[in-house]
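Hi U.,

Before I forget, here's the chain from the pilot set. I'm dumping it here mostly so it's searchable later in email.
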Amino acid sequence: MGGFSLWHWLVVIILVMLLFGRGRISDLMGDLGKGLKSFKEGMGDEEAAKRQEPPRSIENRPIDVTPQPPRAQEPVTPPPPPPADDTTPRP
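Structure:
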């Protein structure tokens, strides 16, 4: 079950050419190229729009950095014990 040899690839290429024809394959490749070009242009337009966006304003409020007294912590209650299992033998 090794890889394909040169003869295998030639047979596959000939079958593809017979099924689709030479013109149709070149049309498909041309459409693929146009799609990639359009995608790249769209990505460039998006980045340009981000660069043209005005910077966001920052609120000029003072930040309170004075030390606060520690908060009282609530007492931690242990979880309830698991229910007794009636299937275990008791001594």
